[in-house]
Design a protein that fits this description.
Helix content is about 40%, strand content about 20%. By secondary structure, it is of the alpha/beta class. The protein has 2 domains: about 1-250 and about 455-480, Aldehyde Dehydrogenase, Chain A, domain 1 (3-Layer(aba) Sandwich); about 250-435, Aldehyde Dehydrogenase, Chain A, domain 2 (3-Layer(aba) Sandwich), CATH 3.40.309. The strands form 6 sheets. The protein has a 7-stranded mixed β-sheet with strand order 15-16-17-14-13-19-20, sandwiched between helices. Helix 2 packs antiparallel against helix 4 (about 95-110), helix 2 crosses helix 7 and helix 10 (about 260-275) packs across helix 11 (about 290-305). The chain starts with a strand and ends in a 17-residue tail after the last strand. The structure holds nicotinamide-adenine-dinucleotide. Nicotinamide-adenine-dinucleotide (NAD) binds near residues 146 and 173.
């Protein structure tokens, strides 16, 4: 059995806690590896390595820090096929989709190649007589990232790339469901010239997370995962005096106006609803057609496409959608589909009976479509995180707008229309962090920032973009005087520049 340990001080080390978790091939349901769950000693070893290496790294000029990322970007590109296959083998998503996962993370590494410019402070010459004022952006010291299973390349890169580029050492605690790609990324960073101890991967579960949240030497924590854990991480880290950002779950709506191009809308919904088996925090899980006629056309066009979805293992290049991550995730989604039926939603396409010859123990569910879903139903309120799309019919644009506005979550939202006025009004008024206009998955590029509102994010700075440099650095403002004029004597009033 393949054993996955930790990556500490520039090398792979075995776990010593005696605790392990199973890593599965989601297409077959078989155990493919066992991953070590870190003890407090393993975490302490990673922090000791980080502490020893960080001052020297922070003192390395930013151009040299950037060069490590230039080489890392090149290495990822050269290892793309190997990384994508490894990612798919543990996550289950198609290889093409895994490439997208890696590429969106790679873009963050490309972005931080600009760290010499990004980390510059501000300077005011002559803020007062003989006085100059400037700000520095200094690393927090040791940062930590706790990541979910669904983007095992992109989300670790959201965090460790800006943190390390800015001069921090980093402890990454990836999801225990698919830890191999994060481990490979750490190896590739080392191959790119990153000094040992700057990037450490500590595999684990809640116990390891609690160790991170309680550790005095960790200055900032970034979390991405489900909302209940995000709330817990946010509250605990804040209580322990750490800087913290915590991103949670989602329920992303797509408003379909009567004037929308129906073919494009349906294609967009297919990809955004069923790509990656719906296991994306930016997946569209609710379609809101405006008007009965729009709704009828939409459901009629969607149903045959969902029935024709090519569902299969990542190893089949024809697959459009793979299995869910675990048996437990599969069972949870199946029970939510049962609940939707009990709640009175109309099950137009039922994915519960899906079976694939040779993969009977895989965690597959067929694409599922509910119509006539209403806001009081659990299947509307809860994040399903599976290949299940709910249609909520709205009578008017205003009624449609109210739905995402009133929902607990606020990650992403989209509107499909040909009317610029409506689209502009929607983007202005909707209380959601990322908005797509005729774009179903409006995940911003690395040089903008990613983050939801409401119960989808806790904390005030987003992932990547200039926000990430702010999150992983502290501002120090220096006021300096080199007086050449007359003596002023002691001043007892509050100093001003007057
Ligand atoms: P999860 O919350 O179960 O796990 C996330 C991380 O928290 C993992 O590293 C896990 O080991 C750790 N963890 C799990 N239980 C814990 C506990 N009780 N105490 C402390 N730590 C714990 O999430 P997941 O199932 O891996 O990922 C799916 C979720 O992540 C979905 O809700 C999805 O919407 C969300 N997500 C959000 C974003 C975003 O940017 N908002 C992006 C991707 C995924």
């Amino acid at each position: 059995m393949r054993m996955i340990g930790h990556f500490i001080d520039g090398k792979q080390v075995a776990g010593t806690s005696g605790r392990h978790a199973d890593v599965f091939n989601p297409a077959t349901g078989e155990i493919s590896a066992k991953v070590a769950l870190a003890s407090a000693d393993n975490l302490d070893a990673a922090i000791a390595a980080a502490r020893a290496a960080q001052p020297q790294w922070a003192a390395t000029n930013p151009q040299r820090r950037a060069r490590v990322f230039f080489r890392f970007v090149d290495l990822i590109n050269r290892h793309m096929d190997e990384l994508a296959a490894l990612l798919s083998s543990e996550h289950g998503k198609t290889v093409e989709d895994s490439r997208g996962d890696i590429l969106r993370g790679l873009e963050v590494a490309e972005f931080v190649c600009g760290i010499p410019h990004l980390q510059k402070g501000e300077f005011t010459e002559g803020a007062g007589p003989g006085i100059d004022m400037y700000s520095l952006r200094q690393p927090v010291g040791i940062g930590a990232g706790i990541t979910p299973f669904n983007f095992p390349a992109m989300i670790p890169l959201w965090m460790f790339a800006p943190a390390i580029a800015a001069g921090n050492a980093f402890i990454l605690k990836p999801s225990e469901r698919d830890p191999s790609v994060p481990m490979r990324l750490a190896e590739l960073m080392t191959e790119a010239g990153l000094p040992q101890g700057i990037l450490n991967v500590v595999n684990g579960d809640k116990e390891t997370v609690d160790g991170i949240l309680g550790h005095d030497e960790i200055g900032a924590v970034s979390f991405v995962g489900s909302t209940p854990i995000a709330r817990y991480v946010y509250a605990t880290a804040a209580q322990n005096g750490k800087r913290v950002q915590a991103f949670g779950g989602a329920k992303n709506h797509m408003i379909v106006m009567p004037d929308a191009d129906m073919d494009k809308t349906v294609d967009a919904l297919m990809g955004a609803g069923y790509g990656s088996a719906g296991e994306r925090c930016m997946a569209i899980s609710v379609a809101v057609p405006v008007g009965e006629e729009t709704a009828d056309r939409l459901v009629a066009a969607l149903a045959p496409k969902i029935e024709a979805l090519k569902i299969g293992p990542y190893s089949d290049a024809q697959s459009e959608m793979g299995p869910l991550i675990t048996k437990a995730a599969q069972e949870r989604v199946l029970s939510l589909i049962d609940r939707g039926v009990q709640e009175g939603a109309r099950l137009v396409v039922d994915g519960r009976g899906f079976k694939l010859q040779g993969y009977e123990n895989g965690h597959f569910i067929g694409g599922t479509l509910f119509d006539h879903v209403t806001p009081d139903m659990d299947i509307y309120r809860e994040e399903i995180f599976g290949p299940v799309l709910s249609v909520v019919r709205a009578k008017s644009y205003d009624e449609a707008l109210e739905l995402p506005m009133k929902h607990e979550y606020g990650n992403g939202v989209a509107i499909f229309t040909r009317d610029g006025d409506t689209a502009r009004d929607f983007a202005t008024r909707v209380n959601i962090g990322m908005v797509g206009i005729n774009v179903p998955i409006p995940t911003p590029m690395a040089y903008h920032s990613f983050g939801g509102w409401k119960a989808s994010a806790f904390g005030d700075l987003n992932q990547h973009g200039t926000d990430s440099i702010k999150f992983w650095t502290r501002t120090k403002t220096v006021t300096s005087r080199w007086p050449s004029g007359a003596k002023e004597g002691a001043q007892f009033a509050m100093p001003t520049m007057e």
